[in-house]
Amino acid sequence: MGLADVPGSLVLDVLNDHFSMGPEDAEGYFAPSDKYDLKLLVPAGQEATTPGVHAVWEWAIRCELPYAVLWDESGNAQTVDVLGNVENPDSDIHVTGDLFKAMVDRLGEAENPMLMVLSTDGQLDPSTAEAAANALRAGIPCHDLSRALLEVTWRHLPDHEPPQEEPELETEAGGQMALAVPDGAPSVTLSPGEAAAVGQSLSDAEAFVEHLYGALLPQVEELRRHLIHGRSLLAPRPAAAETEDAEPKKTRLEIFNPESGLWEPAGRGRPPKGAQKRRVPA
Length: 282
Description:
This protein is α/β, with parallel strands linked by helices. Among the domains are: 149 residues, 3-Layer(aba) Sandwich (Rossmann fold); 31 residues, no CATH class. It is built from seven helices and eleven strands. The protein has a three-stranded parallel β-sheet with strand order 1-2-3, with helices on both faces. Helix 6 links the parallel strand 4 and strand 5. It is elongated, with a radius of gyration of 26 Å. About 5% of the residues have low confidence.
C-alpha cells in the first residue's frame, strides 16, 4: 500500500526473487513458488489503487495467486481491474471506511503476515507511514517495495513514536541525557580531572556519531536508489511480438467463443483450458 509509484519491472524482479516464484511460461504466467504459500490483501479505492498497487496486483495475476480486497467503495479505472478479478466477490471483497487501519487489523489475524509499502525517495505518505507504525507496534514486519523490500524500522518513521522498551533517559544539568541509575548500583566518585576526562570522551563520541549520521546516511540512501534503478533496468521483460517484416508491434490475445462463433478479447487471468487462442494486432 502507498501513494507512490513503482516500475512494473522492479515489482516482477524483486517479488519473483524474494518469494522464489517459478519460471515464466510462453503466455507470461509464472510457475508457483516451491517455498511459500501466498495470498495477497490488496487495498482498492480512488486514492488507494495507485499505479504501484496495480503493478503488484498484476504480478499476483501473472503468478495466479489468490487475493482478497479491502475496498472503501470509491474507485478509478484500476480499481475496476482489482475488484473484477477476485475468485469470489462475496467472500473476497471487504468494504471498510478506513483502508489503512483495516489492512493492519486483518494482517494481525494472519499466520505469517507482511505489510508491503511504497515510498517515494524513501519517504512514505502520512497515511502509509501511520499504517507502517501500527504494523510495527503489532509485531507485523513491514518492507518497502520501492527500495527492493528494505525492512522499514522506526528510523524510517521519524514522525512516529516507537514503544518505550528501553530504560528511560534522565535529563541532567545543561540538558544532557543519561540512563537512569538502577537501584542498588554501587556509587563511583571521580576527581575533578577524571570527571572532565570522562565528559570530554563522551562529547567526542557523541560528535563522532553525529558526524557519521549526518555525512553517511544521505549517501547510503542515494546509493540504494542507484542500486534499485540498476536492478529495474536488468529485470526481464516479455519479448515483443514481431510481424512478418520483423518490426515489433503491440498485440492482444483473443479467444474463440464456440457459442457465438466469434473471436473475442481475452480478459485478465489464464484463458480456459483447451480454448482456441490467437494474437492479433492491438
